[in-house]
Amino acid sequence: MSHRIRYVMVGGFLGAGKTTTLGRLAAMYRDRGQSVGIVTNDQAEGLVDTASLRGQGYDVGEVAGACFCCQFDNLVSTVRGLAESGAAPPDVILAEPVGSCTDLVATVIRPLKELFAAEFDVAPYAVILKPGHASKVLGNEAGTGFSPKAEYILRKQLEEADAILVNRIDELPGEQIDALEALVEREIPGKPVVRMSAKTGEGFDRLLEVLDGTTSGSVTPNLDYDIYAEGEAELAWYNGTADVAAADAVGLDALLTDVIGRMKEALAEKNYEAAHLKAVGVSDGGFGVANLVSGDGPVTLSAPSDRTIPAGGTAELILNARVAGDPQVLQGLMNTTVHAACEAVGATAALRDERAFRPGRPVPTHRMTDDPTPTAAASTPAGASLTT
C-alpha cells in the first residue's frame, strides 16, 4: 500500500492559539520520529503564521486567497508539493485553517476522507476554544465586541468539532477552567474536552491521544451560509510588511510590543474589537512575535527574538490584523501606529504589500453533509458535490 499522510487539522476562532499549538505539536511528532509538514491558510498572502513556523525550521506551505474550503484543490496540491519537496513524504501534515472559517468538516474533512482516502488518513478534528470570547458567546453574555453574526461562526466552529480544546489554562484560575468546561458540556454536549496550554505544553500528551484517534468528521451542523457570510464580512482584514531602518540600535522585541500596544489603544478609541493582532519581526537571522487576542487582553511576546537592530541596520515587520471594523480605517491606523512606534526610537518605516479588505462569501469546492437537503449553501457552485 502506498504511503498515507496523517492529516491533522486544528481549528479555532481568530486568536485562539492555533499557530502556537501547531508548532508544539510539530515538535512532539518529530520527537516520536515522524516527519512533519505544515499548511497555513489566510484570505491574503503575507501571513505572520507562515513566517513564524518557518522561523522554527518547519517546511510550511501557504494556501492564500480564501479558506481551505474554497481553496480545496490548492490545499491538496500544497500538501502534495510538501510531500514531493523532501527526500520522503511527511508522515504528518498539520493544517491551520482561517480563524473566521467554519463548516470545515463538510468542506474539507469529509472530502479528504471520501475522495482522497488513498492519500490521506484524517485525524479527529480538534477546535480550540478561545476563553474570553467563547465564554461570553456560549454564556449568551453581552460585550464580546462582535455582532451576533460573527458570534455565530465561533459557536458553529465548536459544534462541528470532534474534540474541544480549552487553551490558556496556565493563565486561568481553576474555577474559571471548571466553569468553561461546564459551559461547553451544557451548550455543546457530548464533546471530549482537553484542557491545555499551548504556551507551556500542559495537556498536550492528552491532545496527542485524541488526535491519534480514528473517528473524524463525525458532525456536520446545520449552517446558514447567509449568516456565516455576513458575519465573516463584518471583520476587517489587514496584511502588510514594514521595512524598518534604524539610525540607532533598537530592541526588536520592544518595537514589536510597542506596535501592537499602540494598535490596541488606537482600536479602543475607535471602539473596534480586536480578534487578533500579530506582528513578527525579522532581523539578523532571528525573529520575534507579538500578539493581542482581544481588546481587553494583554499584549504578549509569544516568541522573543532577543535581537537588537544595530545602528544603521534594518528589520522586516510582517503585520496581520483581524478586527471588527472598517478595513480602510484599519489600514490607516496600522500605518500611523507603525510610523509612530518607529519614530519613537529614531527609526523609519516603509510599508509595502498592504492588503485591507473584508472576506468574500465562502463558496466551497465540495460540501458533504449528513443532511440531504441543502441549506443556504445553495450558493455552492456548479460542480461542487452535495452528498449525504
UniProtKB/TrEMBL annotation:
<dbReference type="InterPro" id="IPR027417">
    <property type="entry name" value="P-loop_NTPase"/>
</dbReference>
<dbReference type="InterPro" id="IPR051316">
    <property type="entry name" value="Zinc-reg_GTPase_activator"/>
</dbReference>
<protein>
    <recommendedName>
        <fullName>CobW/HypB/UreG nucleotide-binding domain-containing protein</fullName>
    </recommendedName>
</protein>
<dbReference type="Pfam" id="PF02492">
    <property type="entry name" value="cobW"/>
</dbReference>
<feature type="compositionally biased region" description="Low complexity">
    <location>
        <begin position="371"/>
        <end position="388"/>
    </location>
</feature>
<feature type="region of interest" description="Disordered">
    <location>
        <begin position="358"/>
        <end position="388"/>
    </location>
</feature>
<dbReference type="InterPro" id="IPR003495">
    <property type="entry name" value="CobW/HypB/UreG_nucleotide-bd"/>
</dbReference>
<feature type="domain" description="CobW/HypB/UreG nucleotide-binding">
    <location>
        <begin position="8"/>
        <end position="194"/>
    </location>
</feature>
